């Protein structure tokens, strides 16, 4: 396996008032992959990105980028890292092209008008190149942020909620740009509230909550390990309780006993097999049903379940301590 492009070891961050934003994060990112970091608001996503990009000083731990200690070789290594932050932050009176040129020069790279033009065209900004940033719409301002992050051709690119609150057209442009960056070998770490985007674009997914990484896995493996099947049987007659011959299965009654719901399986075919078995057992017991709907867990379902379980765990611990 190649050397990781980013290796984070036991990273912690506690703010002066005692708030813990990162609680011993370990994370390894491989060259060329697209990694999606999912987590609720306040989970530590932006703090983690800020620690790598020099915006947050960690309380402890180590960060190695491109095989070198990031703290020791900060100035040289930072040139190879790009960031698209959540917040819009630039000189609103500057023009688009000047702002993007400045970002490239800030990292010590020579002027390259062809590269600047390529970046602006890829984000549909070329026609707005001489416009002042304050004259642009919110979506166009977001495009300028992305262009500034790409201007110095980073090897590692952070996208912190890059498509939050933007129009569908920009979202499509953003993902086209990500495809192009992947083809060039750029490693991308993104945070997003649009879990379907992570499900479609990412190679691996990590879930963070309350400053801790709950799970990191290949997207397909995660779905296989944690996925569940849901099947809803519309019963011909309402039930008051689960029949004795079915209590070994994970079943519940809903809709005043008119719907028998199965939720279970292991994401690897067990759920489908049990649903088929359940249908046969209902028929043998003369329990009629006139409709069946099945649904496999999505990445969003897995994410929500992980976060809810983590919050319940912390609530239990706090209760014991109290």
Outline the biggest β-sheet.
6 strands, mixed
Q: Over the alpha carbons, how many angstroms does the gyration radius reach? A: 24 Å
H-E string = EEEHEEHEHHHEHEHEEHEEEHEH
Number of helices: 10
Could you say what the CATH architecture of the largest domain is? Answer: 3-Layer(aba) Sandwich
Strands, count = 14
Low-confidence stretches: 315-322
> Strand percentage, roughly?
25-35%
Fold-level CATH name of the largest domain? Rossmann fold
Q: How would you name the CATH homologous superfamily of the largest domain?
A: P-loop containing nucleotide triphosphate hydrolases
Mean pLDDT, to the nearest integer, reads: 84
End-to-end Cα distance? 46 Å
- Strands ordered across the widest β-sheet: 6-7-8-3-9-10
Broad CATH class of the largest domain = Alpha Beta
């Amino acid at each position: 396996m190649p050397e990781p492009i980013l290796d984070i070891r036991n990273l912690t961050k506690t703010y002066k008032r005692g708030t813990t934003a990162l609680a011993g994060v370990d994370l390894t990112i491989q060259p060329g992959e697209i990694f999606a970091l999912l987590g609720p608001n306040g989970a530590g996503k932006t703090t983690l990105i800020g620690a790598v990009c020099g915006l947050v000083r960690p309380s402890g731990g180590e960060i190695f980028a491109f095989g070198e200690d990031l703290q020791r070789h900060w100035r040289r290594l930072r040139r190879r890292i790009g960031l698209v932050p959540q917040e819009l932050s630039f000189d609103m009176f500057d023009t688009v092209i000047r702002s993007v040129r400045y970002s490239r020069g800030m990292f010590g790279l020579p002027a390259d008008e062809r590269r600047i033009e390529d970046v602006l065209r890829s984000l549909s900004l070329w026609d707005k190149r001489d416009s002042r940033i304050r004259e642009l719409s919110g979506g166009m301002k977001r495009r300028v942020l992305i262009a500034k992050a790409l201007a110095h051709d980073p090897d590692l690119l952070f996208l912190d909620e890059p498509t939050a609150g933007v129009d569908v057209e920009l979202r499509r442009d953003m993902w086209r740009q990500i495809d192009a960056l992947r083809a060039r070998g750029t490693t991308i770490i993104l945070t997003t509230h649009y879990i379907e985007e992570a499900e479609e674009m990412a190679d691996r997914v990590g879930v963070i909550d309350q400053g801790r990484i709950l799970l990191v896995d290949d997207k397909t493996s995660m779905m296989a390990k944690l996925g569940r099947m849901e099947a809803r049987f519309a019963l011909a007659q309402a039930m008051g309780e689960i029949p004795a011959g079915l209590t070994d299965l994970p079943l519940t009654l809903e809709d005043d006993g008119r719907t028998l719901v199965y939720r279970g399986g292991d994401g690897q075919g067990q759920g489908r097999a049990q649903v088929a078995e359940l249908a046969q057992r209902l028929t043998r017991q003369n329990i009629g049903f006139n409709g069946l709907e099945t649904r496999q867990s999505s990445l969003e379902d897995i994410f929500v379940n992980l976060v809810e379980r983590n919050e319940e765990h912390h609530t239990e611990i706090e209760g014991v301590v109290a």
